[in-house]
């Protein structure tokens, strides 16, 4: 019988082995895993250590050094607000206030129900359309607090529809 943990380990091994570059490092392996499954579970640390013939402590040292690695599964939805200089100057603070309030957060993180993962992004690469936000990896330029409120409301509606609840 195949378990969820077996499937997770298989996905981790496939991510490590899928790297095409001649130089495979702890960092590249961790990045490949996070790209493949969305986070770095404990099993990933173990598999990278085995694959690279190093200690679990060494792998965890690399993983914990970089702030973009996450060690818990991400929310079903992702929301990012650009915090780069152009977006900041053009109003991302007001967007941020709406997003944090609507999600019930005080900073980056996951909502208590695990539905949304929120983070600041130093640059979403669309400075000419600042301020910019991203919802489920779709960019929205020239954003404002009203748009942020609308987009988060639509996420909430989608979740209620998928669970058969009314809002």
3D architecture notes:
By secondary structure, the chain is an alpha+beta fold. It has two domains: 4-65; 77-163, 3-Layer(aba) Sandwich (Glutaredoxin), CATH 3.40.30. The chain has seven helices and five strands. The protein is globular, with a radius of gyration of 18 Å. It starts with a helix and ends with a helix. The model has no long low-confidence stretch (mean pLDDT 91).
SSE topology sketch:
Elements: H1 4-17, H2 26-37, H3 42-52, H4 56-65, E1 77-82, H5 85-89, H6 92-103, E2 109-110, E3 116-121, E4 133-135, E5 138-140, H7 145-163
Keywords:
globular, 167 residues, single chain, Glutaredoxin, 7 helices, 5-stranded mixed beta sheet
Short description:
This protein is α+β, with helices and mostly antiparallel strands and 167 residues long.
Which runs of at least 5 residues are low in confidence (pLDDT < 50)? none
Structural class: alpha+beta
Instruction: State the CATH superfamily name of the largest domain.
Output: Glutaredoxin
Using the coordinates shown, work out and report the CATH topology of the largest domain.
Glutaredoxin
- How is the main sheet built? 5 strands, mixed
The side-by-side strand order for the widest beta sheet comes to: 2-3-1-4-5
How many separate structural domains? 2
Assign a percent range to the helix content: 40-55%
How many β-strand stretches?
5
Shape verdict: globular
* CATH class value of the largest domain: Alpha Beta
Hey, roughly how much beta strand do the residues contain?
A: 5-15%
- Terminal Cα separation, in Å? 40 Å
Count of DSSP-assigned helices: 7
